[in-house]
Known about the structure:
The protein is 21% helix and 34% strand. By secondary structure, the protein is an alpha+beta fold. It is globular. The mean pLDDT is 97.
Amino acid sequence: MSETLLETPLADEHRALGARLVPFAGWRMPVQYEGIKKEHEAVRTRAGLFDVSHMGEILVEGPNAIAEVDRLVTNDVSKLDVGRALYTVCCNDYGLILDDLIVYRLEAEKVLVVCNASNREKIVAHFAKSLDLGTPWNDVSDEWTLLALQGPRAVDVMKELGATADLIGLPSFHVMHANIAEVELWAARTGYTGEDGFELFCANEDAVRLWRAVLEAGQKHGLKPVGLGARDTLRLEARLMLYGHDINEHTHPFEAGLGWVVKLDANDFIGREALRGIKASGFDRKLVGFEMTERGIARQGYPIIVGGSRVGEVTSGSPGPTVGRNIGLGYVPKALSKVGTTLGIEIRGKVVGAVVVRTPFYKR
């Protein structure tokens, strides 16, 4: 039987714009409108608007909201002031990654947790099992629309929309309540592209109005609607993790280069003792960035070859439109993780040259 795909409140808007819609994490989502390269370039040089309403959102409330969320993630939520956000991961008892999340402290006793669409059911079940029974929480994913306005001219677009000075000056990883185009929403200075920008959370019934208003305001600034194809190339150039590729339930934060979101000396959290043990005893492999030195594009699952033997595999790979090179990420033994190390990527039976490089590949 064919899978029944969910659609966001903006599905008809995407169709009207000529988007190519494809299955993604149980949803029918726009992968591109004019083309991945054009959309990628728009975000890097001007601005792009993404519909990412497939993401999961969980609201946790009450006097114990901060402490309860803090037990479920590796970063230190207890240090979040109202209006602040942080990136983190959620681990199981073995210190392996269930998902990577952004946690927003909307109010003194209200926390928003955003998870990946593919992990929504898993994370909701994990929260249901792990949160104290007296802590109110709600999966609001089906009630909220999430738009991402990204790029160096995102601020200009927001000014065009009449954003207040407080919103225009909102620092990175901060969040505030706002009114844009007569839509009440939460606006965050976060994103997944390596560029400046805003993520806008609104009620589903306001989605079309907000989407159209942002597109109209962005016309004079070169804004384009952008699909998941360019979202992937943008995030890869910025070395941002993609769950199910670069991290999953078989990886821990340290080998993925996410040790900076693990606060072992802060409050207790699920997986802390396991991660202490991993850090103390060491680990054998590391996620590295590489660029191709010969003609070829690395893709997820391709073997990484050194000395005629398979030593790892590619987790993400694609052309990097901004950096002008074919790039990728993959796990290799620590001894092969130094910048400048020569690798081979097996592409359709042929080993093609690559080299370990510093990441991110692109930094604004």
